[in-house]
Amino acid sequence: MRQTTRSLAQKTRGLRQTTCGLTLTARSLSQTTRGLAQTTRGLAQTTRGLRQTTCGLTLTTRGLALTTRGLTLTTRGLTLTTRSLTLTIRRF
Length: 92
Description:
This protein has one helix at 2-91. By secondary structure, it is mostly helical. The longest helix is centred in the middle third of the chain and has 90 residues, at 2-91.
C-alpha cells in the first residue's frame, strides 16, 4: 500500500513538473510569436522606408539630370552672348 502511495505521489509530482514545463513552453512560444510579429512589422516598415528612399533617389537623379541640362543650355547661351558681344565690339 505504501509503495502504491509513493508511486502515485511520484507520478503526481511528475505530472505537475510536466504541466509546469508545458506551461513554460506555452509562454515561451507566445513570446516568440509576439517577437516574430514585431519583427514582421519592423521588416514591413523597413521595406516602406527603402521604397521611399528609392523614390527619393530617383527624383534626385531626375532633378540632377534637369539641372545638368539647364547648365548646358546656360553655357550655350553664355557662349552665344559672348560671340554676339565680340561681333558687336568688332563693328565699332
